[in-house]
Specification:
This protein is α+β, with helices and mostly antiparallel strands. The chain has 2 helices and 22 strands. The two termini are 18 Å apart.
Length: 261
Amino acid sequence: MIKSLNTAATGMKAQQTNMDVIANNIANTSTTGYKKSRAEFEDLMYHTIKEPGAVSGANSVAPTGVQVGLGTKTSAVHKNFEQGSTKITKNPFDIEIQGAGFFPVQLPNGSIGYTRNGAFKKGPGGRLMDANGNVLQPEITVPPNAAGIEISPNGQVAIITGINVVPQPIGQLNLVNFVNPAGLRSMGKNVFMPSNASGLPQQGNPGENGMGYLAQGQLEASNVNVVDEMVNMISAQRAYETNSKVIQASDQMLQQINSMR
């Protein structure tokens, strides 16, 4: 059996995964707070015919060996947490994190998730929550008599109840960061969950201990660069086509062998 058949098949499978990742990036170009992903690959085992440095004669060794690779596989899909561009909304409940950190939100099952999407809304009871009803933690409740809300860069939340009235503090927003954000588990709906790879959540006020500052009335857009993704898509497509041609060539070689008399 010609090994190149299976080797090229692993290459096609890897490029399928690569294309899936690229497609997801492009699909989320307009998703607030989305972080692009990148597929990473590694080579598989090698069939060693001759070890590098093997004895080849009296007082001599082979400078190189004979090792034939058996293909590739997906080793990781890496999340890139670089800052996305700013989108001005002028909505008082829209908050952008300028720098590191995540907003903690309480999920329906009671656990705490983490998000970069700061598009919050006022719920029926006045609590700030995201579009899926996950309540921002610690809870910020806006009273019915509030005519306006102010959120400072360091996370202090105050309400305005009337003209020439001093804003009244109603709470403090906190951010959470991780030693390795790329190790977070993506749960969908703009929510991440910690894992053994991400490390434990580290909570703090915005602007302190490496946390980013907050900006009211604007959101963080996706950090996907469409031009880069289009180039990656073309590269993945060409690599897939090339691997398929290797399979065709290997099949023709087998056909020649089978037709020998």
